[in-house]
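Morning. Coffee machine broken again, so started the prediction first thing and wrote up yesterday's gels while waiting. Chain of 369 residues, entered below exactly as on the submission form.
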Amino acid sequence: MSFKGRGLFQDERAATVVFGTLLIILVTITVVSALALSISVAQKNAMDRQSAIEASESENLKIVSIQPKASDYPLYSSYWDSLNITVLNLDILDSRVSAVSINGNYMMNYFLIDENMEPFLISGTDYPMIFDSRRRAEIPAGKARQIHIGGIHTSENITPGSSSPVNVSLSNFPDKAYSDFSYLVKVYNSTASFNYGSDFTVDENSSILTLLNDSFVPGTNYTVEYTTFLNGNMGPMQVSKNDPITVEIISDRINVYKKMFVPPVPLAEVQYKSELRPNGSVDQYLLFDASGSYDPDSDGFITGYGWAIYNGTGAKVYGFDEGDTPLRGVKVRPALNLLDTPFTIDLEVTDDTGMVSKLSETSGNITIP
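Came back before lunch.
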């Protein structure tokens, strides 16, 4: 008897078994690889989540102080024009600010000031760069930045070439940098300031300043100053000087940092004093005492005292504004002619966070008849 043999690859059943086995091995390898990749991705995601949690927990921003600035315009004299908020990053990683809230109102736009007290500018311009929820302000690790909320102050100089009325093209008008804004304009020089409407007008569409009267002297240099309020920023009548200010900073790690700033309370006492001179005459004087003033913050304290005194003619003898003769201290003995009555006394106190309060804006000035 003889057999006619067939090779392995000639046996269809054997080939099917081998192919099936190889296919099972391939599928198994694919499944194992996919499972390993899935586990690797899951592990990476878990590590990323853990890193994000640790970064969020370790983030440490501190709202150090604020510097409120009063408005220069009489209509808004009882309101703050702007706030500079100093934020310190105590972490080893940089942080970014997602949002800023003032008294519960979120500021859609704000500005950033560096350690040299210079604003970050729009490239090629003198205008501060706008930061918001998309362009987030960075607070570098171990450093502080100031967030500026409120009016932006910019200016330019003009020199009219002819008598009024004359049109002057403005090169730094805010509309050239910001599309959504409201603004206030002042025109002045070293000897005078001028009023919008009666002395000059501005066409915001063409950026043209029109000088209306003969008060403007041809060939004389004048300063045009702009205070610009971006939409969604702090407006000129939003924060009263007498109200507490609550600041909230929200970081991009979803941490919220909050601090309330309460204005200090100015209290003043005026005493008549007599002093015997060596020649036997008696010198009478006034002693002003602000030692009763206090800071309502439990850990706060007053850092500065300034006095303003007006005599019977309304002339300012001492003041706390720029250019005034200063009179500073908790207790002061001003050089006054006691015959120039009545005297009107105002006191300005500043606390360690930068909050300022005046007697005239709280309980009222003191009058000495």
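The longest helix spans residues 12-58. Going to sketch it on the whiteboard this afternoon.
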